[in-house]
Amino acid sequence: MTVIDADGLILGRLASNISKRLLSGENVIIVNAEKSVISGSKVSILGEYKSMVSKGSKEKGPHFPKRPDRILKRTIRGMLPYKQKRGRNAYSRLRVYIGAPNELQDKQFETIESAKATRLSARYIQLGELSKKLGASW
After folding, report:
1. Do residues 130 and 43 lie in contact, with contact meaning Cβ atoms separated by under 8 Å?
2. N or C: which end of the chain has fewer CB within 10 A?
3. What domains are there in the chain, each with its CATH number?
4. Phi and psi for 103 in degrees, rounded to 5?
5. What's the rounded Cα separation, in Å, for the pair 77 and 88?
């Protein structure tokens, strides 16, 4: 079981790394999902996510999440073959949390060097901030 701290990690790079680990059979827990970042201008990112959330209806999908932990989990799901048994099994080995739960406080958190936001020279927005602008409360 690997516990990864998403604080200051780029969403897409984090998701691709985690999906590879899940497909290889590893159990992964991600903490501090609200502190991961999405690169790009705030206006364009917010516009893209608002259009994804507004598609469909309450009765009939597609449903897109507003909470940061669920957005991160949905992003990882998009990188897995989740309609096949192998992908469903991999997806079931993933847990994503906002903050760090008490039972994980004594664990050593791992980080992914290739996904750090320090490599960004341009603008970015934190997933928690995006989620609040989409209307989520957690």
Report:
1. no
2. N
3. 2-134 (3.90.1180.10)
4. -70, -15
5. 9
Cα distance between residue 61 and residue 26, in whole Å = 31
Going by their DSSP bridges, the two strands 94-96 and 28-31 should be labelled as parallel
pTM: 0.92
Residue 8, token pair as written in the block:
């200051």
> Could you give the CA distance from residue 33 to residue 68 in angstroms, rounded to a whole number?
6
Report the run of H or E that residue 117 belongs to, with start and end.
Answer: none
What type of residue sits at position 77? R
* Residues 73, 69: Cα–Cα separation, whole Å: 6
Task: Please report, for residues 7, 8, 10, 19, 96, the alpha-carbon distance to residue 34 in angstroms, rounded to integers and kept in the order given.
Answer: 8, 10, 12, 19, 10
pLDDT digits (tens, 9 = 90+) for 111-138: 999 999 988 888 999 999 999 999 998 7
Which of helix, strand or coil describes residue 106? Answer: coil
The first and second tokens of residue 84, run together, are 């096949």
